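$ ./design --mode recover --in tokens.txt
reading tokens...
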């Protein structure tokens, strides 16, 4: 790749590479046990009648055959939230862009960051990585509003790493003990970053004020990237994951295997104290994957738009969504199985997990009653084991509540003209 081409491509992907976002932010309140935040995304909304639990706030249940039935073993660890709206937002791209940002801009208290990046900016001090972003086939369509959920600044994507072996090498070092090859790759990456910095500094002298500010954000991303090019740190008492298999991470049939490897890596990174904020993005809005492993023969996005009269298509979509629920259950089980080396108990006890989507009813392309499932344990900030029904409540209140549960003080997350304050009933 030519040097100039490489520099240009950074703006689309590498500059915001998730596994390279490192130390920074403000110190956390010493009186709060260290909590962790995980954001999980799955695409294309839902069909509410097949998602919705039955029963009341505390005696809810997931009906047989419903989308969330695989989560029944974890009812006591869940907060199922219905009736949250993205205010003045509809459709795939806008839903994706607002899902974690609340429509915030540089002028707002959240600075236009996504909630994961905002929390990471406050809690990152003392962690090797300020945040870690894992993806599952998020690179097929490049970096755009439809394919990215995290923002380090207004319009600046944080691109997830969707190749497990790359993620492993960044976190835990050489694959199979090949330290010489790892050192060589590190030197090469640092050389490429040096070239990119030179080109971006030169460009900054020839653009206007607004463009210069954007370039400064790119340069800051480069500085954060450089901090990641260090020898991995071993953690006493922390079991490392197995080296991920060498697979074509972008092949449709590898979707399940890549997801499992990414979840294992994420849990290990949290258990080893490498970060306190992580995310897992399954594909992206308008996901093209065909869930053959779940018995499907059509792409997930196509299935998400089947109307009620198409009973076979709806049943197919439900099977796909049940599979996603199974993966969420796997993540909770993995967190529950790992000891918390800092706080005692298990990782799930002090981790808040937010399962988000970008749409409500997938057939209507709207962002009304967008489904959210929260999970955690005894010290995750909320009272779990409940099903909460809201009516036209702004999801920005949930984002604000997430920040406050993590010990990060903010009165309104995102655009304050749309919504302020926290979501009732969570604590």
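writing sequence...
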């Amino acid at each position: 790749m030519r040097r100039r081409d490489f520099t240009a491509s950074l703006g689309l992907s590498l500059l915001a590479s998730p596994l390279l976002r490192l130390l920074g932010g403000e110190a956390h309140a010493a009186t709060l046990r260290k909590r962790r935040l995980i954001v999980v995304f799955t695409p294309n909304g839902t069909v509410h009648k097949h998602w919705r639990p039955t029963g009341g706030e505390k005696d809810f249940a997931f009906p047989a055959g419903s989308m969330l039935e695989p989560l029944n073993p974890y009812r006591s660890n869940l907060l199922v939230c219905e009736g949250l709206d993205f205010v003045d937002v509809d459709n795939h791209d806008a839903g994706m862009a607002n899902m974690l940002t609340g429509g915030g801009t540089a002028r707002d208290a959240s600075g236009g960051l996504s909630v994961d990046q905002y929390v990471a900016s406050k809690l990152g001090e003392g962690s090797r990585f300020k945040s870690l972003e894992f993806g599952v086939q998020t690179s097929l369509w490049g970096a755009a509003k439809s394919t990215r959920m995290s923002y380090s600044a207004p319009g600046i994507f944080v691109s997830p790493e969707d190749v497990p072996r790359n993620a492993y090498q960044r976190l835990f070092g050489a694959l199979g003990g090949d330290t010489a090859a790892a050192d060589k790759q590190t030197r090469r990456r640092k050389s490429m970053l040096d070239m990119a910095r030179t080109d971006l500094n030169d460009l900054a002298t020839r653009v206007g004020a607004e463009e210069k500010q954007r370039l400064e954000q790119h340069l800051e991303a480069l500085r954060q990237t450089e901090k990641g090019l260090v020898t991995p740190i071993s953690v006493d008492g922390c079991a490392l994951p197995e080296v991920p298999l060498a697979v074509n991470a972008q092949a449709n049939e590898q979707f399940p295997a890549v997801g499992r490897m990414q979840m294992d890596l994420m849990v290990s990174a949290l258990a080893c104290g490498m970060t306190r904020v992580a995310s897992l993005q399954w594909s992206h809005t308008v996901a093209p994957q065909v869930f053959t492993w779940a018995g499907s023969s059509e792409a997930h996005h196509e299935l998400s738009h089947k109307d009620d009269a198409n009973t076979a298509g709806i049943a197919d979509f439900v099977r796909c969504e049940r599979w996603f629920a199974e993966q969420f259950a796997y993540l909770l089980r993995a967190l529950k199985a790992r000891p918390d080396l800092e706080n005692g108990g298990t990782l799930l006890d002090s981790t808040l997990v937010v399962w988000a989507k970008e749409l409500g009813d997938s057939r209507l392309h709207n962002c009304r009653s967008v489904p959210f499932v929260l999970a955690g344990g005894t010290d995750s900030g909320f009272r779990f084991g409940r099903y909460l029904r809201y009516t036209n409540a702004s999801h920005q209140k949930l984002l604000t509540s997430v920040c406050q549960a993590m010990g990060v003080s903010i009165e309104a997350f995102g655009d304050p003209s749309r919504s302020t304050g926290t979501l009732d009933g969570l604590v």
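exit 0
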